Amino acid sequence: MTPYLRLLRPKQWVKNLFLFAALIFSHHLFATAYLLLSIKAFVVFCFVSSAAYVLNDVVDVDADRLHPIKRNRPIASNAVSPRNAIFFGLLLLGIAAALSSSLPREFAFAVAVYVAFNVGYTFGLKRVVLVDVFIIGAGFLIRVVAGAYAINVEVSHWLILCTLFISLFLAVSKRRAELLLNELTASQSGRAVLKDYDVHFVDQMMTIVASGTVISYALYSVAERTVLMFGTENLVFTTVFVLFGTFRYLFLVQHHTTEDNPTALLLSDPPMLVNIALWFITCVGIIYGGSASR
């Protein structure tokens, strides 16, 4: 089963944690019913996202075999046949559909949109400059919205804005890492869209979205609606963790050229993991501590 487990790309499931954003910022983190719904939604997206990766690996198998890293993937290395992979992907979608049936229809719609975006990305949109990074970014945004739909709470405009900038930041940094990996290995086996990018242009985009990430979060933390909802102005102090995380991520992306998956790079960096943990603990303490005191 090891090749099939690798085909799932479980390390990528960390991206599905975006589904819990609405749960945390809607004051329902410690409400068992809401938490269970969010966990079920998380599991659904784990299956659906893995099915999308399977489809991508089947379609890109020839290109992956020429790539210095992707050639080790189960299908590209012939550990799993394309036919078996397709059946496996359909099984994953079937399980996801069964689990979604007990969640709100709006959540199922969000899942369908996510699948449609990934199919479009796999079969052509990933070759269109700029559209490719916006599709990747949309995947994170859909997760946040789906998480809100799963527990039937309103999606904050601030939450959408912050997610938009963060998701584009991650998408653009991925392209930068791929560009540098191609240069380092003198390989032309990367994505076709990479020929339309260069490191200088990508760095400009990263500067813009990194700035947008920090500014939008800072404005959210001091917005009148935020202060009224949480009953405290102290959320502004969590901005320091967002700043550090942004700077640290930029440092990692610009000083590591052997990994085309910045998400994996991020999760293997102890300072970043500590920073994320501190941000989470501080946010929960401020949001729920403020509610308990009222």
Structure description:
By secondary structure, the chain is an all-alpha fold. It folds into two domains: 1-155, Tetracycline Repressor, domain 2; 156-294. Helices cover 71% and strands 0% of the residues. It is built from 13 helices and no strands. It has helices at residues 2-8, 21-25, 32-59, 61-64, 82-100, 105-122, 131-151, 157-185, 199-222, 224-230, 239-255, 262-267, 270-293. Helix 3 runs parallel beside helix 6. The longest helix has 29 residues, at 157-185. The chain is globular. The mean pLDDT is 89.
What topology does this entry show?
Elements: H1 2-8, H2 21-25, H3 32-59, H4 61-64, H5 82-100, H6 105-122, H7 131-151, H8 157-185, H9 199-222, H10 224-230, H11 239-255, H12 262-267, H13 270-293
Helix pairs in contact: 3-5, 3-6, 3-7, 6-7, 7-8, 8-9, 9-11, 11-13
Which characteristics define this entry?
294 residues, mainly alpha, Tetracycline Repressor, domain 2, 2 domains, 13 helices, globular
Number of domains: 2
Average pLDDT over all residues? 89
Shape: globular
What percent strand?
under 5%
Largest sheet: none
> Could you state the CATH homologous superfamily of the largest domain?
UbiA prenyltransferase
* Protein structure class: mainly alpha
| Helix share, percent | over 70%
* Low-confidence sequence ranges: none
